[in-house]
Amino acid sequence: MWVLSGDIGGTKLALAISKAEEPAKLVKQIEVKSPQQSDTLFQAIIDGFQSLLESEQGDVTKVAVGLPGVLDIEQGLVIYQQNLPWRNFPLVEKLQAHYPNAEIIMETDMTTAANGEYKIRHFQKETMIYMTVSTGIACCTIHEGNALRGAGIPGEVGFSLTREGEYLEWMGSGPALQKMIQEKTGDEATLEQFFKRYYENDARILPIIHTWQEEIAHKIHTFLMLLDPHVVVLGGGVMNHHPQMVKEIAEKVDAFFTLPFFEHKKGRIQASINKGDAGLIGAALL
After folding, report:
1. Which of 41, 76, 164, 245 is deepest in the core (most CB within 10 A)?
2. What residue segments make up the domains of the chain, in order of their start?
3. Positive or negative torsion for Cα 214, 217, 223, 225
4. Do 286 and 114 contact (CB within 8 A), yes or no?
5. Which CATH superfamily includes the segment(s) 2-109+278-284?
6. Residue among 80, 20, 111 at smallest CA distance from 91
7. Closest CA to 246 of 213, 273, 215
8. Can you list the pairs that 24-31 forms with residues at least 24 positions away whose Cβ atoms lie under 8 Å?
């Protein structure tokens, strides 16, 4: 019995298969460039799954996919994505037609990634916030096993304001951080090169990275004061590739708790366990 999982992004399409009895253990996976035509994108998903299942025995019991943008979960519709061609696309219905005996699940990519981090920790009753810092910034809160959806569009922390009054995503995402360092230093290096210089204690880079860390830390401090989660997980490309950033941001958050009756809130920041496979593993575990 097989579980098919997909992480559908604007630039890449990641697909995997796992055994139904061990959904978190990805047996095979592939990545391809996301086609920019509606029908072509859907066919690429089907073709990708079929290639993974080639020569494998057993039925498909579940197909679970995560994707960005505005979704109608109840109706199984992909309403709108900025970097994908689907508009009011009946994804669940189309997947069901290809896999009529399988359970079909569609979720937001933030929810799938958070779900994987929650379940890989064997949480059941805990409250956990998953925050991604990558090409964008967003978060998902899971409480007692269920994602908090609010009035419909939760977790858009990237569009909350910094202390300077700008959107956090405009200074805190990977591309924004790279641009900010380039502008402040007059250097056209990549973000990876800037981080390397940071680790080498480059005096020009240190204060810029520290300011970035402090803005992220202030948001997490607010999460901890508002919801008192058991764990805040930092994931996404920037954090996954730079665990030292997770450590230093965690230290800054802990330093904010100066009152003795908030001492118990320290030590709650963790790095992603699933790393770059968070979306695929999380989908498989839905």
Report:
1. 245
2. 2-109+278-284, 115-272
3. negative
4. no
5. ATPase, nucleotide binding domain (3.30.420.40)
6. 80
7. 213
8. 24/116, 24/119, 24/120, 24/281, 24/284, 24/285, 26/277, 26/280, 26/281, 26/284, 28/52, 29/277, 29/280
**Average per-residue pLDDT for the chain:** 95
Angle at which helices 206-227 and 174-185 cross, to 10°: 150
Buried b (16+ CB within 10 A) or exposed e, 244-254: ebbebbbebbb
Residue whose tokens read 């990805």: 26
Which residues does residue 147 pair with via DSSP β-bridges, in sequence order? Answer: 142
Specify burial of residue 40 (Cβ count, 10 A radius: 0-12, 13-18, 19+): exposed
Does residue 11 carry a pLDDT above 90? no
Give the Cβ contact number of residue 203 at 10 Å.
Answer: 7
| CATH architecture for the domain at 115-272 | 2-Layer Sandwich (3.30)
Task: Identify whether the C-beta of residue 143 lies closer than 8 Å to the C-beta of residue 179.
Answer: no
Q: Are strands 103-108 and 60-67 parallel, antiparallel or unpaired?
A: parallel
Its pTM stands at 0.92
The helix, strand and coil proportions of the chain, stated in percent and rounded to the nearest 5, come to 45, 25, 30
The yes-or-no verdict on residue 274 having pLDDT over 80 is yes
Q: What Rg, from alpha-carbon coordinates, does the chain have?
A: 20
pLDDT at 82 over 80: no
